[in-house]
Design a protein that fits this description.
Oligomer: single chain
Radius of gyration: 23 Å
Number of strands: 18
Shape: globular
Helix content: 25-40%
């Protein structure tokens, strides 16, 4: 036993106290962040174009700086990509995080010397809060793994670029480098299936204590470990007791994971993105993740049901309410201004401010005016399988507007690990749970506008095969929980 756990607890206490200072003063903290962002960017091209020198209040800011997504900010970003300085933020970015765009190919999200440290510190602080609350620190002596993209970086006009997770791999602190897995060589493998197979071989006989990644891809890793060892992951890694995840809701995967592991393990949820690290789970006892108000990001919130109206109101942190679905709007020290990242959140606590990710503003079903969101379908599915032996590998939902006969309906495409004994009874339970989640959906069922949900079984590995077919297997890619059209499910039907 090393001294690492002892010093980790001391450091955890220090970080916890530091966090409390800003978490207990949220409005002042956000005001300071806002004023600092405006001050530092007022002489940039964007700041001059939007009269930052005249902005004194958040109301001034809302009047001068409209909400934009990547496409609407693209003219500025393209100048940054070409190597121009002082466009969105002072100087040049130190990296571009390259992500998949929906309408224009690759997106290049700037990372600056001011923004990059917060990506690293947030992930670290999430673990330290866990240590402070639970007193569990022995895992720091074991091996840790994060299933991530390749750390090999390209260069564009003198600025390095790559996947965010690959960029972050260059910032692993020295005290963790001996504990970090997989090896650099394995991490550089581009093909996801080849990479996971290599990770299995490297880690199989190691003392793995922390495993991290998007649940759907960690599940693949666990399944391959189980195939190799012929026993639960928790027996292969006897000291594995902490799972760290982000990107998707863990609840639909929890039963399957506990079966693969063979026991329960603690988990920490993160809310990172290329555009910023927004929140992490700071408590095992409280619902939601602590919104990071002191990390160079100024937050605004627009009610989801008002987002597509003309000039919807933009709320600041002191004006938000519990359980309301908000579109998250950010302005950052990487030069993103009133930027719509596409995620929606709900507040679970206002003291301190904690959030859950409720879905994507573009990922919803409202073919009949019901506006069903990701959180609702996940909660309904969770309710439908409680107390059963049903286990789900993956799922997505889409409307069927023009059925061959009868009323239209919501179609659930589900890849089962353990199938229901009675699919009709399961469908009935799922529909009942969905009606409780969304009153508009309930009205449509009662009014005979829709018939009850239809469940379509997806073959084993069907979702993985789909992701592979579109070149998005592994990494940070994930299946949308729901769509307002049938583009995804039509391809699934061909499998």
């Amino acid at each position: 036993m090393s001294l690492k756990p002892f010093f980790a607890k001391i450091f955890a206490k220090k970080i916890y106290r530091k966090t409390q200072l800003w978490a207990n003063n949220p409005i002042e903290t956000q005001r300071n962040v806002f004023e600092g962002l405006i001050r530092q960017a007022k002489n940039t091209k964007f700041g001059i174009d939007h009269h930052f020198e005249q902005i004194k209040t958040t109301e001034d800011f809302a009047k001068n700086v409209p909400v934009r997504d990547y496409e609407e900010l693209k003219s500025y970003i393209e100048r940054v990509v070409k190597g121009e300085e002082n466009i969105l933020w002072k100087g040049k970015p130190i990296y571009f995080a390259k992500t998949s765009g929906t309408t224009s190919g690759a997106k290049y999200i700037p990372l600056t010397k001011e923004s990059m440290p917060f990506h690293i510190e947030a992930a670290r602080n999430a673990i330290l809060h866990y240590i402070h609350e639970t007193g569990n620190a022995d895992f720091v002596d074991g091996k840790m793994i994060f299933l991530q993209g390749s750390p090999i970086l390209e260069e564009k006009n003198g600025i390095k670029l790559g996947r965010l997770s690959g960029i972050v791999a260059h910032f692993v602190p020295k005290y963790l480098q001996k504990n970090r897995m997989p090896s650099w060589e394995t991490n550089c493998i581009e093909d996801w299936e080849t990479k996971v197979n290599a990770i299995v071989e490297e880690t199989f006989d190691q003392n793995m204590t922390v495993i991290s990644g998007i649940p759907s891809w960690v599940q693949m890793y666990f399944e391959k470990l189980h195939q190799k060892g012929g026993k639960p992951v928790g027996e292969i890694f006897k000291n594995f007791n902490l799972f760290i995840y982000g990107g998707v809701n863990y609840e639909p995967y929890r039963a399957k994971f506990e079966n693969l592991i063979g026991r329960k393990v603690d988990s920490i949820e993160l809310f990172p993105a290329s555009e910023g690290f927004f929140a992490y789970q700071d408590s095992q006892k409280e619902k939601g993740m602590l919104l990071l108000l002191n990390s160079g990001i100024f937050y605004e919130f627009i009610k989801s049901d008002e987002f597509y109206t003309k000039n919807p109101r933009r709320f600041t942190i002191g004006e938000v309410e519990l359980s309301v679905n908000y579109v998250l709007i950010i302005s950052t020290n990487a030069g993103l201004w009133s930027y719509n990242i596409g995620d929606t959140v709900q507040f679970t606590s206002l003291k301190p401010y904690r959030v859950i990710v409720s879905g994507r503003i573009k990922h919803y079903i409202s073919a009949f005016g019901e506006h069903v969101i990701g959180k609702e379908v996940e909660s309904a599915l969770q309710e439908a399988i409680i107390g059963t032996t049903i286990r789900i590998n993956e799922f997505t939902v889409a409307p069927q507007i023009t059925p061959n006969e009868g009323l239209p309906y919501h179609e659930w495409f589900i890849e089962f690990e353990n199938e229901p004994e009675n699919l009709d009874a399961f469908s009935e339970a799922l529909d009942h749970a969905m009606r409780k989640q969304n009153m508009y959906y309930d009205d449509l069922i009662v009014g005979n506008v829709l018939k009850k949900v239809v469940v379509t079984k997806v073959v084993k590995n069907g979702f993985q095969d789909y992701m592979k077919s579109i070149g998005k297997l592994g990494g940070q890619n994930k299946i949308p929980r729901l769509s307002n059209d049938r583009k995804i499910v039509d391809l699934l039907n061909k499998k």
